[in-house]
Design goal:
There is one protein chain. Helix content is about 65%, strand content about 0%. α1 packs parallel to α3 and α3 packs parallel to α6. The radius of gyration is 13 Å and the shape is globular.
């Protein structure tokens, strides 16, 4: 699973980047679609897998995508407040490294 996600993150086109903090979220933007899919896949699948050694690489690649499409931060903050991700990843998850990686993602989005 990790290799699939890494390939997806590496193949996301950069020509759709947006660094405008006031821009609205375009859910059809390829970068935004990759961010949405990769975070959902990470939280709902990879966080449960035994394959943990690739998590730092995946989180770093997701953060790089977020940096190239700043409006995604708005979507992520809404997802964090409207979903059970925070509860699951920070309060229920028993794997310290997985919690830390997710927390790094949250902190980066909030910057």
């Amino acid at each position: 699973y990790s290799e699939f996600l890494i390939k997806l993150l590496d193949s996301t086109p950069n020509q759709f980047a947006c660094n405008d903090y006031s821009a609205s979220v375009d859910l059809s933007n390829p970068i935004m679609l990759s961010i949405q899919f990769s975070i959902k896949f990470y939280v709902e699948t990879l966080a449960h897998s035994k394959e943990k050694h690739q998590q730092p690489i995946i989180i770093k690649k997701i953060i790089n995508l977020i940096d190239s499409y700043i409006p995604s931060c708005k979507w992520l903050l809404e997802e964090f407040t409207n979903s059970l991700w925070i509860q699951f990843m920070l309060l229920s998850c028993i794997v310290r490294e997985t919690r830390e990686h997710f927390l790094n993602l949250i902190c980066h989005v909030m910057k």
